[in-house]
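Support reply, case 0932

Customer input (verbatim):
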Amino acid sequence: MGADDGTVLLFRPGPAVTPAGNPSARGRVLVLGGSERSRRVVEKLTAEGYTCASADSPASALSVAESLKPEAVFVASTADSAYAAVNALRRHEELSQLPILADLAGGSVEQIRALGVDDWVHSDDELTARLEAALKARRLVEKDARSRRRMEVLLEIAEAATSSLELDQILGLAVEKISRVIPADRCSVILVEGHGPRTAHVVASKELPRAVPIALDLARYPELRRAIETRQTVRIEDATRDPMMDEVRRTIVPLGIRSILVQPLICQDDLLGALFLRLSRSDGGFGREETEFAQAVAAALANSVRNARLHQALKRKREDLESAYVDRYRELTEANHRLKELNRLKDEMIAVCSHDMRSPLNVLLGHGRLLLDSPLSGQDRASVEAIVRQGKKILDLVESLLERGKGEQSRLSLEARRLDVAELAKETAEEMEILARQRRVTLRAETPESLLVVGDEVKLREVFQNLITNAIHHVPSGGEVVVRAQRLRRPDGEVARLVVQDNGPGIPPEQIPLVFDRYRHGPGGVGLGLAICREFVDLHGGEIWAESPSTGGCAFVFTLPMVKEEALRPAPAVREDDALPRVLVVEDEPEVAAVVEEIFRSRYRVEVARDGAEGLAKARALRPDLIVMDVFLPKMDGLDAAAALKASGDTSDIPVILLSAHQGVADKLRALNMGAVDYLAKPFQALELLACAERALKLKRTEKELRRSQSLLRQVGSDPETGQLDRGGFTVRLEQELSRAERYGRHLSVALLSPQKPVGDKARTVAVRLRQTLRSPDVVGHLGDGTFVLALPECSVAEVQQTVSRLVPVLNEEFNLPYRVAVLDARGSDAEALLERLLSTPAA
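Our regenerated output:
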């Protein structure tokens, strides 16, 4: 068939021949040249099954190539027009890589080479073989390129699936990427729910980006229904002829639907949906390569869908738990209010009892002092002095008992100092000797050596008095009570072993574990006194128990930690390379500081500061491993000092234990919110304080190892350039903060910091400065190129604006980086929508 411009376009005859090409042909060839030789080549190749066309000028060559889509070019002439046509093809972007062969019979080797062809033939006999080889090589290159592009797309989809849990984003990206490498008219992701009659929804589609899920009637899609029922890939090459499509053929024929591919989404044997591809052109279809690619993509998408559904289930569960927590918190708050009212009534009753019990004692002591002021004989004066002395002790005991009677949650205070407990035992025995003589009981003390402990003299004296009094009341007339003080060596250090033993009838073995129970009265009045003894000994870090000696009677034994001998000598200078951890004690009361220092001295290097400001200065200078600090301090209280330590980059990793005489839960929560790792109410036991310090130091070591491990791994949601959250991680964290803000009625604001000039390599240092300046609960994210986004819980927009207005000049001064700021109220918004709105807000 001829053309007016000299172009000859010939196609292989037959019903399957189309101008665009024939899939059953051996290949499509463009023949250049208008000579008789060109027409013979076209006829020969057409007879051998090729689809051919000829052209003899640059313009006609480009026109024919646009319709033919050739796979190879054969130059049958060395005329100038053929040379120009070759150059035109080489300059065309889509045709420049076509293999070009030339006929050597039409000219010399030099002329053929001048055309810039890829190969040439010597005769018609080798034309077919040379052309077949060129087409095969081109197809292999195209197949490799398609495989490479599809592999890149698959990796992009897999990376997106593992970097975010936003399912609509993942599926939208997947549809877009698939459409680039598979020429489908429709590409959709369909999700199904249920196990019996299933419902299906289109959640992502090439034709409807960001579409609302569309419900599908599976009865109208037999191919989709078959894939879901069988869980197998369904590939239809010709929808107009396939029997599966009989019931809907009248519907699809007007739409020109040709080929369909449905790949189920299955993860861990759960059917989640399907990937749906449809092609309407009659010259193409889905082959084995497209099917394998769809299977690989479907596996990645199925895993993403399953993870997203698990995430949503966990999110709903978390919200349910938070709701239950809020309800329970309200119930406990109401109960706490009722208990506080009852506690107030109890305190009023205790105050009345205290007044009624102390008043007669004060009268008794007053008359005793009056007698001491009058002339008395030696024996009378000694008796009156004993009455006054014992009256004072009774008054101290009444105060202590009333304090203990305030409830199990009340804690007694220790006025601790160094004392010789052996001498105290001896003195108490001598004071109780009058009572022993009245009962005709022998009382003696065996205290061969000095035993130094740190303790409260009044409370330890009361322990001795209670034990000796019980022993005297339990031995018959003529019996004996012995008080012994001994040194006992243990692997963890020396202790003072104090024993009060009698030769009375003893205590039944079944009663020995019960004698220290509070308000349990046994034979002879055993009860509250022994319970107080146990609690006072526990406060000193000691132990107390009862024994039944083989010689008869009963023995009450208690131990107290002793002061180490080296602690009595001046402490040697600590070497800088000392391996012991360093503990900084910040306490304004000298007696309490001495006790805490003594407790720590055996295990740690101890430094002492007397107020909050001094403690803060020493912490920055010494960089201790642990800080133990009182809450109520002069100059700067412990809570402010703890907050200052956590806000400073060089001290933020030092664990802080706070001490206070307040024992309320609210005080403890406030201390922990300020950055403390633990909180102890005074008075405390030595073992309790040591255990608390060990936990804090162990936690510090664990956090250090965790940070070291985290530095080697890039966590999902983190930005490797700055160490802060990336956009995906910030979005997830912002969603959590939005949920908390809505549930607890708190403020939440977000801010965007946009640099006005390139940041370069300063992004990490800017991120460090932001993290040092902001509070611990504040969230920092890096969106790239030095742009930071902040989420500040419990802060209004005005408060955030004040914060960033102070921060921006600092960044400009330190890093020469001017920043513009946008601030929004975050409440009532979706995390992703809020972030988009923040990015589009004009910065000031």
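We compared this against your earlier run and they match. Two observations from our side: The radius of gyration is 46 Å. The chain is about 45% helix and 20% strand. Please reopen the case if you see a mismatch on your end.
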